[in-house]
Amino acid sequence: MAEPEFVGPLSGSRSGPGTGTAESIAEMTGVVKHYRTRGRGEVHALDGVTLTVGRGEVLGLVGESGCGKSTAARLLTGLERADAGTVRVDGQDLAALDRAGHRRLRRTVQLVFQDPYASLDPRQRIGDALAEVLTVHRLVAARTAARARVGELLEMVGLLPATAERYPHQLSGGQRQRVGIARALSLQPRLLVLDEPVSALDVSVRAEIVNLLDRLRRELGLAYVFISHDLGMVRHLADRIAVMYLGQIVETGSWEQVSDRPVHPYTQALHRAVPVADPAVEYRRAGDAVRGEIPDAARPPAGCRFHPRCPLAEDVCRTEVPVLAPPSGHRFACHVRQRELGVVTPTSAERPADARGRLSGQPATASRSTGARP
Amino acid sequence: MSVTPVVTETATAAAPPAGRLLTRIWRDTNGRIGLVLTAILVLAALCGAVGLLPHDPIAQFPDARYRPPSADYWFGSDQFGRDILARVAAGIWTSLRVSVVSVALATLVGATLGVCAGFFGGWLDQVISRFVEVLFAFPAILLALAVVSALGSGWFNTAVAIAVVYTPIFARVARGPTLSVRNAEFVNAQRVLGIPTHRILLRHVLPNISAPVVVQVTLALSWAILTESALSFLGLGTQPPEPSLGLMVADAQNTITSAWWTMAFPAATIVVAVVALNLLGDGLRSALDPRREQSR
Amino acid sequence: MTAAPVEPSTDGEVALSVRDLHTAVGGRRGSLRLVRGVGFDLHRGRTLALVGESGSGKSVTALSIAGLLPAGVRVTGGQVLLDGQDVVRWTEGRRRALRGGTVGMVYQDPMTALNPVMRVGSQVAEGLRAHGWDRAAGRRRTLEVLDEVGLPTPGALARLYPHQLSGGMRQRVLIACALAPRPRVLIADEPTTALDVTIAQQILDLVTDLRDEYGLAVLWITHDLGVVARIAESTAVMYAGRIVERGRTADLFARPSHPYTQGLLRSVPAADQPHQGLLPQIGGTPVSPATLPGGCPFRTRCPQQVERCADQEPPLLRRGPAEAACWVPPEDWRPVGAAEVRHG
């Protein structure tokens, strides 16, 4: 099913500065995104986030509501622009894209939504929805070619070609999500951003979709940003994991490091909070829930943003913003853990000049983020 | 335009066939009555237009003045000996022509404004919404009168005047649902997929807001008939000798005591037309109800 | 009888008993059977988890018990016994007194279940007034119950409106509403699904603590096997309107008997599964009440069906420590209760 021509046309049709040379398919560097809301003030959706997605790599992005994971998805797919910092896809700065560049971006990064029903036009047949994308991007010449390609795409995600004649409401949740994936793949992207792709589905069909995603990745050499609140799912699928809390990355590393040997107290709390289907494990966990509410992202706490809920919190946590350290490998932003494990952190002189001390993995490149917003 | 014939054809196939819509209206009691009455009116107008009726609506017969309803003159005749049935049929034709054209214009302009305001938001929404509010501030008939006085009479100018009155209603009816569709996930999905904005508007937003607009169309048709009659009654709409229901009612004011039929039949026709289109609108509303669609 | 617990000695007295419950939605073109013969007992101080996917009938079962079925849906058979009385046949007035008074309910969405223009304290007190508490006692109880559900400064909080609270606090308020009139039974319909995981964990712990303190009998409806493992002593798995397996949670998770339960448990990624390997999956699509196949409803997705599965729907049969509705393997099944086997 992995026809060679499926991957082929991508490299040929693309040109422009930086194409194909970068190690990573996508990078965010010191990205800041705030939303001004009526009544609540300015919501800090992302505050100095730096992350990279390697070619063919699965990056798991874990966190709860308000952590900024969905904002990251919208920025990576070009639905929104960063206030500060840079988002690069395939080596190109998204802020500098012209019309043609945006078109190329669509064919490099695609998004799969959480709710497959809401993300399909209820009045459009499945086949028409897929054919529309193909014709708009001039990927097929004639009507018969569109129909054939739609059939191929549907088969690729494990659906019968006859599904093309159906309307979204005639499909089951799992089938709809397969259509969502097929539609994203119709543009032959190299990076799929998956925003909670299985949480809206019935438990018994989740495994099928996860297996499908795993197969497609191998066959097509895709990279994924897999966004979820379910550490178990992320652990299963991801090569690397980044844990986010209130717009910042608090821990990142390989899937084994973050999921099986978490260091940051928030990651540990998250780990305990996700119920696993094993009464023996769950029995031991009763009563050790992390305390407190998730703070309003419009008024993030000073210092370490997790300190009001943290069992390890000390005075330094209330005033000083922790920085992700060590510089590579298993990195975490926690004063106490860094001291306990003897991790050398950048001195305050090397930190971003921002007075509120935004968390940033790359202090040197933070120049754009400092004067970001009024 | 990157719209290619391929998708145009398949997309039209996706629209619900008109036959099924009629069946669904028929299932609704109000819709059924409205449909039958509307059909009768249209049929009468058509008969008059193609000359199937025994008398001419304009030719005057001094011998046949003020004939009461009879086998020959079903609705009687007026002060010039003209057949009232023929004039009513022709009047329906005039009224329908004016109301259909005016509502078509109002829908086109109003829905376009409303969809653009709802979809793009920001300053465009502000400008359009304020403009709509200003138009709303005028009483409908006064606004129509003002426009007709400015443009001069004649059926097309009457239609334009009525269209101006109903444009803000369509703008408002289209804007609300557009706002919610704009934020629907599938519109986001299409942006990510690189579907051009004009295409998202035409192919995805419009079909999904069409139900309230279509219902509004039938209701506006009935109001437009009333407004046209009112304008003609006031002497600013259709000009004599062309038959118009409003004009006939105006002419019959002096003869109502001696020849009741000169007033009764045109007036009743106006009432029937308004009721028919309102009922049809009701039927259409329940036929297009998405909840009903789901239960099917 | 029907829900003969596997180890009756360790369970408290039965607070509520559901027997052979049938619920259907009537349509012009015939009725759809949403719940087809469900039975279980709720014990004081214990939690029973009712697990299932969308369309399995788990929520309809809860609504049937509380008498909150939407228009067109009605109980067509069976009993809901509270102190030996069948509440299904009660009038709406008596049932209203029962709801809240004896049976409290907590819903999935804390946003929509609270009245947005009413102060939190008034919403709790309103329920109390409806159950005959006078104003002063109602106010005292309101502050008390807000404190019991772990809300800080109940006095100040009672004067807030729902939108001024976080999702977790709203869910605590809903629990306070449900528990204020001191019910004996609490029905919780996916109350943590809309919450963040760290907040959901707090709610799970809270309900378990309150249950232990007041000897509540809890029916917890969920699709999340992890939640079941955390809070429930016993579990009933629903599929296509029937219970297909039930037993003590520890036994059921350790040795699931029904192929559906087995498939569900295996398909959840776990630490002992290979990283990025294929997850064992249940094939096919969940059935809906409109598309029930004849015989066993799970047979269209079942990897181990035999000839008999197409002919006859299996009743709940004792299999080892649990009960399951499956014909395979036939060696060790035996009937568990006449009432359960009756329908088929």
TrEMBL record, chain A:
Swiss-Prot/TrEMBL keywords: ATP-binding, Nucleotide-binding, Transport
InterPro entries (UniProt xref): AAA+_ATPase, ABC_transp_ATP-bind, ABC_transporter-like_ATP-bd, ABC_transporter-like_CS, Oligopep_ABC_C, P-loop_NTPase
Stored SMART domains: AAA
Biased composition (Polar residues): 362-374
Pfam families, per database record: ABC_tran, oligo_HPY
GO molecular function, one term: ATP binding
Single GO biological process annotation from the record: peptide transport
Domain of life of the source: Bacteria
Domain ABC transporter span(s) in chain numbering: 26-271
Chain positions covered by the region annotation Disordered: 1-22, 345-374
Entries under NCBIfam families matching the protein: oligo_HPY
Similarity field: Belongs to the ABC transporter superfamily.
Name this polypeptide is given: ABC transporter ATP-binding protein
Organism lineage: Bacteria, Bacillati, Actinomycetota, Actinomycetes, Nakamurellales
From TrEMBL, chain B:
Protein name, UniProt field: ABC transporter permease
Primary location recorded for the protein, binned into one broad class: membrane
Family: Belongs to the binding-protein-dependent transport system permease family.
Stretches of the chain forming a coiled coil according to its record: none
Source species: Nakamurella endophytica
Chain ranges passing through the membrane: 33-53, 103-124, 131-149, 155-174, 205-226, 259-281
Pfam families named in the record: BPD_transp_1
Residue ranges of domain ABC transmembrane type-1 in the record: 92-281
Automatic annotation (TrEMBL), chain C:
Full protein name: Peptide ABC transporter ATP-binding protein
Source organism per UniProt: Nakamurella endophytica
Pfam family, any one: oligo_HPY
Signal peptide limits: none
Family assignment from sequence similarity: Belongs to the ABC transporter superfamily.
Keywords: ATP-binding, Cell membrane, Membrane, Nucleotide-binding, Transport
InterPro entries per record: AAA+_ATPase, ABC_Ni/Peptide_Import, ABC_transporter-like_ATP-bd, ABC_transporter-like_CS, Oligopep_ABC_C, P-loop_NTPase
Gene Ontology terms for molecular function: ATP binding; ATP hydrolysis activity
CC annotations in GO: plasma membrane
Domain of life: Bacteria
Any one Gene Ontology BP term: peptide transport
Keyword Protein biosynthesis on entry: no
